[in-house]
Design brief:
Elements: H1 10-19, H2 23-33, E1 38-42, H3 50-62, E2 70-73, H4 83-94, E3 98-101, E4 105-107, E5 114-116, H5 118-126, H6 128-131
Parallel strand pairs: 2-3
Antiparallel strand pairs: 1-2, 4-5
Length: 146
C-alpha cells in the first residue's frame, strides 16, 4: 500500500486540477500523480447488499447528480498530509461516483458487482441490527445468484 501523501508540488497540481474541463482529464491527472491509486471501476453494488445501492442512489438524488460508477481505490487517508487524495475523492463523489477502499469492497468473482470484503462483512454484521442492514447469512466472494 502506498502512502499517497501530498506531493511537494501540491499547489501546482491543485491549480492544474481547477483548469481541467473533463473527468477524463481529471483521471489522467490522478494516474499521473498517484498511478496505483485506482484499483478498478464497478457499475453497481451486488443485489445481495441492495442497501448500499439504495444509499448511493439516495445520496446522489439529494445532491441532484446521477450515479455513475463505483471506484475502488487502493487507500484513502483523510488528514492534513493527504489533502490531494481527499480532493480527488470529493471531486469524484460530487460527480456521482461511489469511492471505496479496496479493503472495504471487491468485485464479485462472477458478475463484477461490488461486495464487501470479508473484513467489512464482519463489521456490518456486528452493527446489522442497530443499523437495519440486510446481509446474506454468510460472506462469500461472489453473489448468492452467481
Amino acid at each position: 500500500m502506498t502512502n499517497y501523501q501530498d506531493p511537494e508540488n501540491l499547489p501546482e497540481i491543485m491549480e492544474r486540477l481547477k483548469s481541467l474541463p473533463t473527468l477524463k482529464e481529471v483521471k489522467e491527472l490522478i494516474d499521473e500523480v498517484f498511478p496505483t491509486w485506482f484499483v478498478c471501476v464497478l457499475t453497481r453494488y451486488s443485489k445481495d447488499y441492495e442497501g448500499f445501492q439504495t444509499n448511493w442512489v439516495n445520496v446522489a438524488k439529494m445532491a441532484n447528480i446521477p450515479t455513475t460508477q463505483i471506484v475502488i481505490v487502493d487507500d484513502m487517508v483523510f488528514d492534513e498530509n493527504h489533502n490531494l487524495i481527499r480532493t480527488f475523492a470529493e471531486l469524484l463523489t460530487r460527480s456521482g461516483f461511489s469511492v471505496r477502499r479496496k479493503d472495504e469492497f471487491i468485485p464479485c468473482e462472477t458478475c463484477g458487482d461490488a461486495i464487501p470484503t470479508q473484513k467489512m462483512y464482519e463489521v456490518y454484521k456486528n452493527v446489522q441490527e442497530e443499523n437495519r442492514i440486510e446481509l446474506p447469512t454468510t460472506w462469500s466472494n461472489k453473489c448468492e445468484n452467481c
